[in-house]
Automatic annotation (TrEMBL):
<dbReference type="Pfam" id="PF05935">
    <property type="entry name" value="Arylsulfotrans"/>
</dbReference>
<dbReference type="InterPro" id="IPR053143">
    <property type="entry name" value="Arylsulfate_ST"/>
</dbReference>
<dbReference type="InterPro" id="IPR010262">
    <property type="entry name" value="Arylsulfotransferase_bact"/>
</dbReference>
<protein>
    <submittedName>
        <fullName>Aryl-sulfate sulfotransferase</fullName>
    </submittedName>
</protein>
<dbReference type="InterPro" id="IPR038477">
    <property type="entry name" value="ASST_N_sf"/>
</dbReference>
Amino acid sequence: MDLKTMRTCTKVTVVLLLLHCHTFGAEKQALQFIRLPTVVPNPNPAAPLAAVLSYEANQDVTAEVSLTDGTNRWSVYFDEAKKIASGLPVIGFRPGRNHQLTVTIKNSAGQTLSVNGLVFHAPNIPTDPTLFPRIETRTSLIDRVEPGYRLLNPRRRVPQGAQLNEEQQRRFGESFGMLLMVDRHGTPVWYYQCESRIAGFDYLDNGRILFVTADFRLVEIDLLGNETRSWYAAERPQGYAEDSEDVPALTFHHDADLLPSGNLIALTTKRRRINDYFTSETDVDAPRQTQWVMGDRAIEFTPDGRVLWEWDAFENLPVRRFGYETFSNYWKRRGFPDTIDWSHANSITKLDDGSVMVNFRYQSAIVNFDPADGKINWIFGEPSGWPEELQSKLIRLEGDARWPWHQHAPVFTSQGTLLLFDNGNYRARPFDQPTPVAETRSRAVEYKLDLEKMTARQVWTSETAEDRPLVSVAMGSALELPETGNILAGYGAVFDPSRINEITWSNRRGFNQITRCVEYTRETPSEVVWELELKPTGSAPEIGWNIFNTQVVRLSAR
């Protein structure tokens, strides 16, 4: 064999060897289940409608779980590694029904592998009237309803005079926390229960939920109800919280947000002893006295509890400008005796420009400030009673539109407008005469702000001339929906419209409350396309249900 022939044979041998190696490698890397998928009931009783999916693949894969109960079809997607040791949360199951599941995994090369025939029977929801509200929904224009599930936080209460003393009523309400997800028909598809009432919550991009509890904690859970992280106010009356990060704060209340940086912002409080302070909101001549006054403090802190900045309402707002309900025993019921409620913030938002927006319910004002130096940029709210040094910060409302009163949940929309839920309570500050309850209307409302001219004009409201008299005495939310542009309003604690003429601001605690979530078109006049109501349950006592806020969650639900 000559040299040329030897070289040719060598090349052929090398090519064949490389082909063999490539083929062997391809066979070795074929996508396989090492352990076939299984779906089992969630072992955590806090989220009983969820199930746990487990499997193991020989490669890194994504997964799609397609589900049906024979009527509804939906999918859940996971971007996970090949080994799922602790399992993945699957939700969307309708109570008491059998569901069929198909699991499809996919590798980076686009190769897929499916297993079908999995079956899961979802448990029923509780029949105990103290543990679950009665849900009713009405849909007017189904083709215009935002896709997805509705996430809300039912809170239970009994009215005064329900054969429970004040402490029993307080404990009944504060010892129960719930998050509930329903489909557009009002059917529960997921819920979570804990032992402390839940205030503001937020469904996060990572599929977890962050919420604030009545015992002054911030808690993050996954959809199996497992606590993934938590923080507590180190100075709270309840003291130490096990397995939780302590943050130097007196309370956590109403609202907190997880920032893109991984830090958190939250509402907390400070308590001050103030001389010669008011003792009445109806009698201007009532004797004054030294009072413990609770004011709000906004903070940003790292996940390990280190505070980066704080903003103190006592240092920046006029403490003697106060509103109706300052003497409502709000903080007394939460472990701070002889303490009145001055500013009562209920939401905090860090905007894209780095400024922070805080809503003060009893001030009927939204305040925007720079956390770097604490200086106020602007104030949007009813203009009476502000001191001279803040007059230049007040935004003027143009036209014949009315100011919001005791409002909740201000947020800037995709159009740059300011959207909020206007409870409309009182429509006055002490010592002016409040608007009667029967003439009050709660609403979602939208304003266009011009921060150069320091003006605002109303551009949309949910109110129409045919509206039923919905009066939300507390809580509430308004949210722009991403696909339809509709507005979802949560009417937190609503008086029974049939008894509205019996209710006054002084006797209101003796009446039960319901709640409504209403989806409006963003037209003028607006139309209602979807509505949910939580009805009272049980008897002796009858239990009322309300919510703090509501959101839409997209899990490819349809």
